[in-house]
TrEMBL record:
This is Thymidine kinase. It comes from Falsihalocynthiibacter arcticus. It is found in: Cytoplasm. Keywords: ATP-binding, Cytoplasm, DNA synthesis, Kinase, Metal-binding, Nucleotide-binding, Transferase, Zinc. It catalyses: thymidine + ATP = dTMP + ADP + H(+).
Amino acid sequence: MAKLYFHFSTMNAGKSTILLQAAHNYRERGMDTYLLTARFDKRAGEGRIASRIGIGEDADTFETGEDLFAKIQARMLSGPCACVFIDESQFLEKEQVWQLARAVDDLRIPIMCYGLRVDFQGELFPGSAALLALADEMREARTICYCGKKATMVIRQDDQGNVLKEGAQVQIGGNETYVSLCRRHWRAAMGEDISRKYVKSVA
């Protein structure tokens, strides 16, 4: 049965690596796939999904306002397609996530989305919020904070390594721009004093 999957994490958790490996597994078994990524993310070149460990693959692109149901349907009409893989899915619009859900239901094709859950201010991306609401299955790809705990948040830095607390939600960048942290150390990086210890009083 076809499902809409959302694989989420913070930065540098290996989402693209997982996507590329899963797509390879399909093709290794003789099944064609359809890869999509955000058009404006050109870190590896336009229309290319690349991993930090050095593997990559060409992909089609999506952009704001594009009908993804029609795009996937056209791909399926052009030849066999066993699964759709979407990288940088946090950049999807809410309506586009609904289009993916309809493609799963009506075209009966599994769609696997990979993306960030929250931005550098701890807020959900619109695409991620919609996927959290609509996905049939959700899976977390994990990475760690420098303290060893699971990283769930991310900070944005300027060229001098200063933490930025304001700015546009979307800014393309890699290790030079973003650092993944656990919630406690994200709070500290954002200026909160985490040294205080609170003790519950006993009446």
